[in-house]
Amino acid sequence: MSAAMSQNPQNQGIDLALPLDAVAELIIDADLDDERLWVPRGENIATFPLWFSVSQGMWVSITRASGNGIISRHRHSAPVTGFTLDGSWGYLEHEWTATKGTFIFEPPGETHTLVVRPDLGHMMVLFHNFGPIISVDDKGNTLGFVDVFSRLEACKEHYEKVGIGADYARGLIR
Ligand code: FE
C-alpha cells in the first residue's frame, strides 16, 4: 500500500472481521460459455445455479430458454425477482414483455405461465426464487413442486453426470 493511501482512510477497506457465526461469502465468476454448467430442465431450457440457501429455502440461478412453447406454468408461494440478461420473455397472464435490463418482482400467490416471446425467441434471466415453486396444470391444479432441495439434487446429479462432480453444487450452498 502506498504512503498516500495509508494516509487516506477513504481508500481502505474496513478492518472488521466477519461475526463468528456468519457463513462464508460466495463469489462465482460464472462461465456461461461452459455448457456443462447449464443444468437441463427439459427441452430448450436450462438453469445455471449460483446460490442455494438451505436455511432460508431459496435459491438464485440463471434460466435460459428458447423456442415457442410454454416453459413452465406454476404458482409462487414466496416472492420471485428476475433480471433480464438477454432475450425477450414474459408471462401469458401479463401483457408486458421483459427484455435486456428489465427487472421484475412477482408477489407471493402469483400463478403464471412463463413463455419466451417470439420477437427474439430466446431469454436469459437471473431469477431469485425466495421459496418453492408449485407446478400447476392449466386449471391451477397442483402437479408438483420445485424447492431449493430438489433444485440442488438435480444440479448435483447433473454435475456428477458431466464429470464436474456434485461437490460443485454443494459449494454453492450458504
Ligand atoms: Fe415464476
Task: Describe the 3D structure.
Helices cover 13% and strands 39% of the residues. The protein is mostly beta strands and 174 residues long. Strands 1, 2, 3, 4, 5, 6, 7, 8, 9, 10 and 11 form an 11-stranded antiparallel beta sheet that branches. A hairpin with a 4-residue loop joins strand 1 and strand 2. The longest helix has 14 residues, at 148-161. Fe (iii) ion binds at residues 74, 76, 80, 112, 114.
Structural topology:
Elements: H1 3-6, E1 39-40, E2 45-53, E3 58-66, E4 70-76, E5 80-91, E6 98-99, E7 103-106, E8 111-116, E9 122-129, E10 133-136, E11 142-146, H2 148-161, H3 166-170
Antiparallel strand pairs: 1-2, 2-3, 3-9, 4-8, 4-10, 5-6, 5-7, 5-8, 5-9, 10-11
Bound molecules: fe (iii) ion.
The site of fe (iii) ion (FE) has 5 residues, from β4 and β8.
Mean pLDDT: 94
CATH architecture level-2 label = Sandwich
CATH homologous superfamily designation: Jelly Rolls
**Percentage of β-strand residues:** 35-45%
How would you characterize the largest beta sheet?
11 strands, antiparallel
Would you give the CATH topology?
A: Jelly Rolls
Q: Got a strand count?
A: 11
Bound molecules: fe (iii) ion
Alpha-beta content class: mainly beta
What is the overall number of helices? 3
The end-to-end distance, rounded to whole angstroms, is 32 Å
**Shape annotation:** globular
| CATH C-level category | Mainly Beta
Tell me the domain tally: 1
Low-confidence stretches: none
Rg computed from alpha carbons, rounded to a whole number of angstroms: 19 Å
Fraction of residues in helices? Answer: 10-25%
**What sequence of helices (H) and strands (E) makes up the elements?**
HEEEEEEEEEEEHH
